[in-house]
DNA sequence: CGAATTCTTGACCGGATTCAATTCTCGTGG
DNA sequence: CCACGAGAATTGAATCCGGTCAAGAATTCG
């Protein structure tokens, strides 16, 4: 049996001992499957659980009273949701399965245990937190200061680089399980304009699209035109 | 001498022991003053320091190659910058003093020390982290799904509620040390449109503006019209 | 008092939204 | 195997919110 995505992710950061790996794997043995569309965290409801994504995609989002939705971030295998729930009891966002999802359900008290017993893992989780902040910061830049086409390219590049870290990259092809409505709700645009902007990226041959997949035809040019900064996601280097 | 803002903030969450208070105050005795406009964190540069804001306002921001700037968040007294720097060595954002600023400079190794020796404080910092995430998530909602007037109202409400926690609220009046250009860069809008939107909020009497201050004339109506959710910032309740 | 920054207002333009209709895709059941 | 229907993608047309350019008024501060 191969290592869990979280172990692979942290293992790419620093050398984990047998004991640490065992602990991390043991953390994830209480699993839960969620169908596409199923909410497993609901804004305003009690949240006293930490989730680790094992397989599939999840979204974090918030819905306004007029029905408009803003997707805040995507959670991929190895990502953790609700890492800091000890005090705050009510969720400030919702989370749902974008694809069939396999989660592990973790008692947050075990997270506290980590900082006392496994300093290396604790440092790794701290790194994950910093990374989440960087990703969310990039999302704010996208929403605030980029044009429609730039937003799309920027988001694709983020996801592509994130997959690179968990070693799930498929060449230039990127899995895109979300609908155009999901994309629109991520990038703060309308469905129609999302469609048109995608088309215009295709027209200038920067991307190719096939069922549920996008091909980044010219990563360098995409980085250039979208002001994407790969450093924000690069893994730790000595 | 009165307690530091950080102690007041965490003290509002949970009862701190003498020892814990002493430790937190001791953490902040290495101070640094920065003039308005002075960058103390620079994107792309090495960052191995944790800062705690003692007095004044700071901004976290990112600048694109075309010169456009996106302000990500405001740091107020008691807020911590660079809490999770142990691994990631390069800053993914810049930070600068919006007003004359008094910071304390903390060795991040002392932050690690906390999780081992002061579990209550560690829990408090974890709560701070969750709160920062909620604030940044709200920023994404503002940028992605709110109209210009809504964004302004939403931001004012955020700041007003944040001041409430550190006990620095001045009735309905809110200190606004930033220029309209700063506001524009926060809310992803142009300077001109920021000015016009402010005027339209004044015209319908939701706010009043005076030098460096805004008065929220009708908090309830502002919350209503801007879709602001105070729960995201409310402190921990039993 | 004078220079520089900040704020305000006008005019015009364009990117993005909205409404609406059509086409495409794909899972399901006859 | 194909017809059907629901969701998803695409395209057109009209509109509008917000951006850009430009100029002037008001503050602030040395």
TrEMBL record, chains A, B:
List the Pfam families.
cNMP_binding, HTH_Crp_2
Q: Which GO terms describe its molecular function?
A: DNA binding
Q: What InterPro entries does its record include?
A: cNMP-bd_dom, HTH_CRP
What the entry lists under PROSITE patterns is as follows: HTH_CRP_2
Please list the GO biological process terms of this entry: regulation of DNA-templated transcription
Highest taxon in the source lineage:
Bacteria
Q: Name it.
A: Crp/Fnr family transcriptional regulator
Ranges for domain HTH crp-type come to 146-220
